[in-house]
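Progress report, Aim 2. The chain analyzed during this reporting quarter is listed below.
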Amino acid sequence: MDISVWDIEACEDELTSCYSPSEVRKLCQILSATPSELFSITIDEPAVSAEELVALICDECRKRGIILEQFEDTVGWRLSQCTAPPDRLLQDITLDGLQWLCRELGIHWHRVIKAL
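Predicted structure tokens for the chain:
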């Protein structure tokens, strides 16, 4: 893992703009914390796994009557390259990208963080 505490402390948005949910999970393991604790997550909604997130993406494309590549344009992130297997999505997308994706899906991104 290549997360530098200095980078995170020095740049306000470094963690969300440069690191993936999987990298955050690894950082939290080192810190003996959970990702939910790191982000002070207190929502009561159920967690959303990587598999569920990919299913939500497919459902959203069907509802909108678009293909995945068109949904990618809306989200601003290449999803087709990182949805198989689903866990790859959490490796390849940044936290900012996850937030944009979840906004388009109509769910709170903290629900994905809860599942880490």
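Residues 50-64 form the longest helix (15 residues). The radius of gyration is 14 Å. These observations will guide the mutagenesis work planned for the next reporting period.
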